[in-house]
Amino acid sequence: MHYLHRTSWEKRDAGERKLLQEPPIRKKQRFRFRFPPREFQPPLIPDPDLAPAPTPRTPTPAPAPAPSVPQSPLPAPSSPSSPSAPSANNNSRTILPEAENRTRPAERSTKNRTLVLVAAIGGSLLLLLVVIGVAVYQYGKVATVKPWATGLSGQLQRAFVTGVPKLKRSELEAACEDFSNVIGSTSICTFYKGTLSSGVEIAVTSVAMSSAKDWSSNLEIQFRKKIDSLSKVNHKNFLSLLGFCDEQVPFTRMMVFEYAPNGTLFEHIHIKEAEHLDWTTRLRIAMGIAYCLEHMHQLTPPLAHKSLTSSSIYLTEDYAAKVSDIVFWDEGAAAVRQTDPQSNVYSFGVILFEMMTGRLPYTAGSDSLEDWACDYLGGTQSLRETVDPTLGTYQEDQLQQIGELIRCCADERPSMKEVCTRLRVITGIGPDGAIPKLSPLWWAELEILSTEAS
């Protein structure tokens, strides 16, 4: 009996020891292998800029202490193996790249918006510059108007022309009949008459040089200066510059002027075949020359005529004076010739003397006065004794006053303004009476042009 009881007790005690020694988590280990644990996902760190303000946390009561469990002398069962939680350092290394990945799309979006804005502004500025460039080009293109483009009379063309246009040699060659219509020449230039396709008559002066080797740099400078100075003279008794031509092949240097159909004052005084000029016409011509010279001397700076003679005075259809300066710069003559306003006053006195006497006061081939002219200017001879015999009638009081003015121009050299004042008192001809009369078709042409422009 006692043996049986011991045996049962030993069996029970052995069973309990067996239960305590066996790991109680074998089934859980089998469960772990069947269902692997989920991968650890670190918590997201909220964006500090977008996170809401922290709210005060209400204190929570501390949890009640757990009842104490008596420790068993046997070792505690081990827990199932699981992936260890990452440390703080691992958290920082894992979380920061993901935060950067979340902020990169926002940065890329901001950069894209900046690029689009810069491209839009740049395109707008480029378009604005193109529009301004086109507008400036169109304005410059229509700023210069060719005087013959309208086909109108010379007076109307002068009213609309601004600046001096550059012409083509082919245009002038066609107008002057292949440069065969020669109307005069000197040692340095040749004069042509031409008619444009619109019917406007022109006078063309061309240098005698046919090669650029014979054309010095000084002559080129003087050519440019002359075009510039002539374009500044805006007077109705001045032969207007309409254009110029400069080409290298073939070598060409030309100036284009309006055409005066009645030739020069020299021809009408000294050539018998020319039209006779009566006393009133001569006084009107003299006043036109004086008014034009006064205008030239009042420019800033003053512009003096370089070769003022009776050959440089052209006459219009109604015999009004047209002062011309169409001769090219002569380096040899320029060395000995004075071109200041006072020299123009002296030359005007000589022209006036030539108109009253009908004789050439200079010695042929030189600039010295004839003996008879010196006797008159010296006061030893009366102008009445040397008056032009072709003048049928004249007023003696006017002739005497003009004689005194001629001596004043030769001796005292007054200003052209003073000369104009004295001569106007003698003749009674004002500026409007000395200028060329307008064409009867002028106002009709002006009205037609105004209608077409509107």
Task: Throw out a few tags for this protein.
single chain, 454 residues, alpha+beta, Transferase(Phosphotransferase), domain 1, five-stranded antiparallel β-sheet, two-stranded antiparallel ribbon, 15 helices, 46% helix, elongated, disordered C terminus
Please describe the topology of this protein.
Layout: H1 2-21, H2 26-34, H3 88-143, H4 154-160, H5 169-175, E1 182-185, E2 189-195, E3 201-207, H6 217-231, E4 241-247, E5 252-258, H7 265-270, H8 279-297, E6 313-315, E7 321-323, H9 331-334, H10 341-357, H11 371-377, H12 396-411, H13 416-427, H14 431-434, H15 442-453
Antiparallel strand pairs: 1-2, 2-3, 3-5, 4-5, 6-7
CATH class annotation of the domain at 154-453: Mainly Alpha
By CATH, the architecture of the domain at 154-453 is named Orthogonal Bundle
The CATH topology of the domain at 154-453: Transferase(Phosphotransferase), domain 1
How many β-strand runs? 7
Envelope shape: elongated
In short:
Residues 7-20, 99-109 have a biased composition (Basic and acidic residues). With 454 residues, the protein is α+β, with helices and mostly antiparallel strands.
Descriptive account of the structure:
This protein is α+β, with helices and mostly antiparallel strands. It has a domain at 154-453: Transferase(Phosphotransferase) domain 1 (Transferase(Phosphotransferase), domain 1, Orthogonal Bundle), CATH 1.10.510. The protein contains 15 helices and 7 strands. The protein has helices spanning 2-21, 26-34, 88-143, 154-160, 169-175, 217-231, 265-270, 279-297, 331-334, 341-357, 371-377, 396-411, 416-427, 431-434, 442-453, and strands at residues 182-185, 189-195, 201-207, 241-247, 252-258, 313-315, 321-323. The strands form 2 sheets. A 5-stranded antiparallel beta sheet has the order 1-2-3-5-4, sandwiched between helices. Strands 6-7 form a two-stranded antiparallel ribbon. Helix 8 (279-297) runs antiparallel to helix 10 (341-357) and helix 12 (396-411) packs antiparallel against helix 13 (416-427). The protein starts with a helix and ends with a helix. The model is unreliable at 27-33, 58-62, 64-95, 141-162 and 440-454 (pLDDT under 50). Residues 26-35 have a biased composition (Basic residues).
